[in-house]
User: Which sequence fits this backbone?
């Protein structure tokens, strides 16, 4: 905590960003509501792991007053107050953190709660998730604007765009056959696999693979027989899912995998779930890594 | 409702008139005052507690301003007037409706373990909500934005009424409603509805699945003034009709044949009780999702202190139900603040141990 401005109603939890001009500004401003008294960086609540990552990438973490339960990276984000699961937020809970802006994807909700938050005078920014590079760009832009760090956002975006262009170049010039890939979200009785129109489907394409499940949208449970007929060269999954299944050894003992080409070479690519399908600022790195591993299985 | 000439509980009648009863049970006035006091305490607690800290002096100022129609722009005013207060009132309507409906069902089935869910109100609402969440997208492409708004509420309400009507019709035999048949039909149709929900979960995307799941757990989080007005009106109207069933239900407690001899139109009582329950619980469930066990516990608790007279059990169950829902909701919205625990989880945590105690209690009798 730093010095408080004389004459304002001190808010004990507020990180006062006191500048030399702040003293002069207080002479003009009505101190009843401290928010407007002087230039103060907006307080942010982020709903969605990738958006939280962007906040940290912009160095705006001091403005972060709350995140949702999907915000797992970087580790510091785990220590922020948690507003719950992104689709089941609480209006009073959000407002109790006294944010200036709540940033989420269009998955954040329920809509009634977002309306209540909006009507209490808090700005709500919802970013459309369409599983494209533009989605990552939008996240950087929106967070930059909301956090009043537009210059940093432009720099970050330029850096990410360049990184992305390089990765795409690498993937485009890769030689050899494109591997047929199956993304497994989780295992219960039968594996939940990704069809089209998901982040996983996009990542497979970005990394130069072919999603071998194209008959449906979203994630669906799949039978052993259709797994065999899909004939994946390679399985893509998240570390969390493989761990939940008891490790890589256990994973390959699943009977439905025996019938796939991937089984013969034990072709499995795994990565942290948020890194792999979070559509955040680490997407270029994730795609590069997945692409390299695909190449070895092609 | 036709007045029952026979009064099965003369002792309580005098208690109702304010003269002291000689039984060890509480007098009607004492029970209803205790219920009212509990509700007032729960309301005060609910007003003062919340994720957004509003200190008592500030709260009093907010209340003062609200009473004078002075809507200020301070965040505390906004939070209280547009989030917390409608939520409390919806909680009262929900708990009152569930408590009253529970007492009606237990009176109708002459079984203290009966529950509004028995006649398909909850499963019908859940099935219709599930259909709206999963299939609604094909009808209205703008569905994700409209979720939680009127489409879902109206569909759920319609679903609960439809399924209840179906069960009621299945229980018709030779011009009368067979309660045993109604119970079995209820179990069967509930199983069918949960199979339907299972199929919908299979069809659902990850997001839709989450929505169905949270809907099944119940929450007062979607409370708005419009939903309070709608649900409140419906519950009040249903409650007025329900309270008038007290005397006939007392007669029915002696058995259907006995009640008929006492001049009670038994079929009409059954029909009214079913309709009141379906309408009240249907409206509540449509607005909040499934809040379990309130309808089961509240009447039972009331009977433990007040005895079986429906003239006391019905209103007192409504009061106690409302107090229980308000209290559970305070815990639900503060325990993991700023996140929120689904209310249905809490009522089940309280409700299941209570249910087990009730089972033991009944066996010992």
Assistant:
């Amino acid at each position: 905590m730093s010095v408080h401005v004389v004459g304002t109603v001190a808010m004990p939890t507020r990180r006062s960003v006191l500048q030399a001009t702040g003293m002069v500004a207080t002479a003009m401003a009505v101190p009843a509501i401290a928010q407007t008294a002087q230039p103060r960086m907006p307080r942010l609540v982020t709903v969605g792991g990738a958006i939280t990552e962007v906040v940290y990438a912009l160095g705006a973490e001091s403005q972060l007053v709350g995140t949702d339960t999907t915000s797992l990276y970087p580790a510091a984000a785990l220590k922020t107050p948690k507003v719950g699961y992104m689709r089941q937020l609480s209006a009073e809970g959000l407002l109790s953190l006294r944010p200036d802006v709540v940033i989420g994807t269009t998955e954040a909700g329920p809509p009634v709660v977002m309306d209540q938050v909006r009507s209490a005078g808090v700005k709500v920014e919802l970013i459309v998730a369409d599983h494209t590079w533009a989605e990552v760009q939008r996240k950087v832009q929106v967070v930059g604007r909301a956090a009043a760090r537009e210059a940093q956002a432009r720099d970050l975006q330029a850096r990410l765009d360049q990184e992305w262009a390089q990765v795409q170049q690498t993937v485009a010039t890769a030689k050899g056959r494109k591997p047929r890939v199956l993304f497994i979200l989780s295992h219960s009785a039968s594996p939940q696999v990704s069809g089209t129109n998901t982040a996983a489907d996009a990542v497979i394409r970005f990394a130069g693979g072919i999603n071998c499940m194209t008959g449906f949208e979203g994630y669906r449970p799949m039978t052993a027989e259709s797994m065999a007929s899909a004939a994946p060269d390679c399985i893509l999954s998240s570390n969390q899912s493989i761990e939940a299944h008891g490790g890589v050894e256990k994973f390959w003992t699943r009977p439905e995998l025996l019938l796939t080409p991937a089984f013969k070479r034990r072709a499995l690519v795994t990565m942290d779930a948020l890194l792999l399908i979070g559509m955040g600022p680490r997407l270029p790195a994730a795609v590069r890594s997945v692409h390299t591993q695909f190449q070895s299985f092609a | 409702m036709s007045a029952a000439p026979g009064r099965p509980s003369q002792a309580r009648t005098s208690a109702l008139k304010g003269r002291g009863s000689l039984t060890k049970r509480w007098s009607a006035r004492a029970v209803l005052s205790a219920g009212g006091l509990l509700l007032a305490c729960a309301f005060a607690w609910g007003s003062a507690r919340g994720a957004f800290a509003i200190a008592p002096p500030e709260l009093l100022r907010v209340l003062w301003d609200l009473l004078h129609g002075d809507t200020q722009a301070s965040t505390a005013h906004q939070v209280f007037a547009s989030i917390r207060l409608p939520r409390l009132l919806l909680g009262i309507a929900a708990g009152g409706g569930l408590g009253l409906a529970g007492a009606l069902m237990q009176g109708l089935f002459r079984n203290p373990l009966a529950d509004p869910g028995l006649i398909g109100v909850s499963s019908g609402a859940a099935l219709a909500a599930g259909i709206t969440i999963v299939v609604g997208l094909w009808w209205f492409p703008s569905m994700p934005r409209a979720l939680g708004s009127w489409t879902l509420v109206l569909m759920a309400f319609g679903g609960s009424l439809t399924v209840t009507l179906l069960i009621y019709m299945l229980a018709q035999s030779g011009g009368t409603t067979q309660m045993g048949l109604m119970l079995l039909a209820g179990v069967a149709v509930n199983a069918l509805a949960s199979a339907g929900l299972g199929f919908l979960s299979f069809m659902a995307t990850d997001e839709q699945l989450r929505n169905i799941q949270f809907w099944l757990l119940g929450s007062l989080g979607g409370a708005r003034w419009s939903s309070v007005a709608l649900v409140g009106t419906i519950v009040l109207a249903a409650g007025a009709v329900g309270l008038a069933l007290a005397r006939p239900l007392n007669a029915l407690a002696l058995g259907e044949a006995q009640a008929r001899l006492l001049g009670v139109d038994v079929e009409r009582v059954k029909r009214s009780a079913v309709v009141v329950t379906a309408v009240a619980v249907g409206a509540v469930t449509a607005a909040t999702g499934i809040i379990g066990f309130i309808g089961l516990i509240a009447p039972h608790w009331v009977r433990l202190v007040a005895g079986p007279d429906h003239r006391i059990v019905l209103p007192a169950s409504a009061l106690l139900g409302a107090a229980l829902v308000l209290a559970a909701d305070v815990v639900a919205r503060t325990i993991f603040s700023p996140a929120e625990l689904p209310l249905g989880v809490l009522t089940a945590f309280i409700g299941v141990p209570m249910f087990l105690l009730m089972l033991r209690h009944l066996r010992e009798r």
Q: What stands out?
A: Residues 1-37 of chain A have pLDDT under 50 and may be disordered. The beta strands of chain A are 44-47, 64-67, 101-105, 123-127, 180-187, 191-194, 210-211, 219-221, 234-238, 268-271. The longest helix of chain A spans residues 150-172.
